[in-house]
Design goal:
Layout lengths: L1 E5 L7 H14 L6 E5 L5 H13 L5 H18 L2 H28 L4 H25 L4 E4 L18 H9 L7 E5 L2 E3 L5 E3 L5 H11 L4 E6 L20 E3 H9 L10 H7 L3 E5 L8 E4 L11 E14 L9 H11 L4 E6 L5 E7 L3 H11 L1 H5 L7 E12 L9 H11 L4 E6 L5 E7 L3 H11 L6 E8 L3 H21 L1 E9 L3 E9 L4 H4 L5 E2 L2 H9 L6 E5 L4 H4 L2 H6 L3 E4 L3 H4 L2 H10 L1
Parallel strand pairs: 1-2, 1-7, 2-4, 3-4, 7-9, 8-10, 17-18, 17-21, 21-22
Antiparallel strand pairs: 5-6, 9-10, 11-13, 11-14, 12-13, 14-16, 15-16, 18-19, 19-20
Helix pairs in contact: 2-3, 2-4, 2-5, 3-4, 4-5, 6-7, 7-9, 10-11, 13-14
The structure holds adenosine-5'-diphosphate (ADP), aspartic acid and magnesium ion.
The site of magnesium ion has 3 residues, from loops.
Length: 595
Amino acid sequence: MKILKFGGTSVGSVEALRNVKSIIEKEFNKNEPLIVVCSALSGITNALLSASQEALKQNDFSEILKEAEEKHYQIISELLPRTAQNPLLMMVKVSFNEIEDVLFSVKNLGELSDRIKDRLLSYGEQMSSKIVSAFLQSENFPAVFQDSRELIATDSHFGNANVDSKKTNENLKNWKLENQIYVVTGFIAKDKNDDTTTLGRGGSDYTAAILGSGLKADEIQIWTDVDGFLTADPRLVKNAFSQSELSYQEAMEMSYFGAKVIYPPTMIPAIESQIPIYIKNTFKPESQGTLIHQKSEISKGLIKGIVSIEKTCLINITGNGMIGMKGFSGRLFNALARYEVNVILITQASSEHSISFVVSFDDEKKAKTAIYEEFDFEINSSKIDEPQFDNELSIISVVGENMKKTRGISGKFFSALGKNGINIIAIAQGSSELNISAVIERNELSKALNVVHDSLLLSPVKTFNVMFAGTGNIGKELFRQLEREQRNLEENHQIKINVVGITNSREMKIFDNPESDFDLNNIFNTNLQKSDLKEFINSISNKNLPNLVFVDNTSSEDVVAEYSLLFNNNISVVTCNKKGNSSSYEQYSKFKRLA
Ligand code: ADP
Ligand code: ASP
Ligand code: MG
């Protein structure tokens, strides 16, 4: 038996839902049941959440609800034959009436509990799954709707409920399945009191794995909007590409450290029951996707991915009184656990008089309360210094199971960061050696991800972002050559050159987005500004682009005068301008030193 889970974008448009139908058609073999788990239509969970926040702030939420409601109507009316539309349109109407009623109470009372929030959010999955099952029926598939609250039992930890595996597996054992398609609501469950709970944001993946494990499925397929588990977040790293396979541990580590493509707890039931998980693209079903399973013999490649958590807070506790203080860490982490603070990573100096750890940005306040409460006496008596909180930071991590057998990975990782001038604030390597992490400034994250991705050879091509000075004979000729050689460079040398800015002594142009157009007449004739070399260098440098290079095709002393500024900003210089190397020896040695 197979479990197929379709995410928000996979059920969020008519085009996507038609693909969903073809995928189900291929996978349903009529000799066994097929389980289809659905997320809410894309954007609906967020819309319900923001409507409830508006209600709590006593603001008008009607526009948000109206848009969400319209989205359902539009899909139903385009997807289903007229005769099948009415009951669904009614169902959506009734759902939104109920949602509105609850939100009016929230607004009137000025109170929104997690319990009510879960109840509100659950409408998203209920509506989408009902639409999908009715759509399949209208296409003559033997499909039925199944509410997951009848199957998955949890505790009452609303918003992120813990699954009661015993009760859930009992329910699943007693579930009399026939050879038909069950369209099940993702994300939602219920507690002992029959109150609706949710499994955490992104939790529909988890629903699929819980059902897979309890029903002893042969495989779990997670259908989403990318070609599988990619080497990095494609929104942040353009060169990210799909991995054909990952071990459960690698997938878990990457998702825990920010790869949103799969919800981290999903791997747990899959590991317990040894069920393979496939990540596939609903919009490109023919592409291979990623297989996640027990570590395989053929698992190749050292590094499987570069992941990041954008918003984190580093907490630093120092103090002479900490030396040898028995049970300090135990007290600290117990206090944090009491406040349900999730500690992402920990580094402790061997001197024992400082400890640094990272928590998620949203947990900063709770962490502060926990620490001040627990160490009130020690802080007041100066045994411990005032704790430091820095919340402008991100974590970047390199993940791969084979790293532990190989020397030099951390060297490469840190030198890629260093060469690009990225300051490393803290480092952690788990004892499993599955992951090496660095804490860096948040505004450098995008650059860091790209340089690390490129330099650890994850990218098929290495991208250079180049700023050009000089549009005379040599400048023009370089552009002609780049235009001619562009394909050769990419295909045979795995090098891609982007133009990020161009200047001569009169005019300059800075690109909002890097271009790979080398027709100089074309690129250097519109939107020109009066040239200002310092401004040119500074504003491009502030973009924090990876692998930044300045090409000096002038013969100007003024340009040479800015080499120090370039080197200080970690920008490489390539030049045919003799003046930098042939003027004073003092200047020459300074450049060499800075470079
Ligand atoms: P769904 O609604 O199908 O569950 P999600 O939005 O939860 O989809 O997850 C898929 C998205 O995860 C992708 O569109 C992509 O932008 C993002 N993502 C982040 N990191 C990765 C990664 N390493 N590999 C693939 N996708 C990633
Ligand atoms: N709809 C829920 C969310 O947006 C669950 C999911 O999509 O997996 O978080
Ligand atoms: Mg998801």
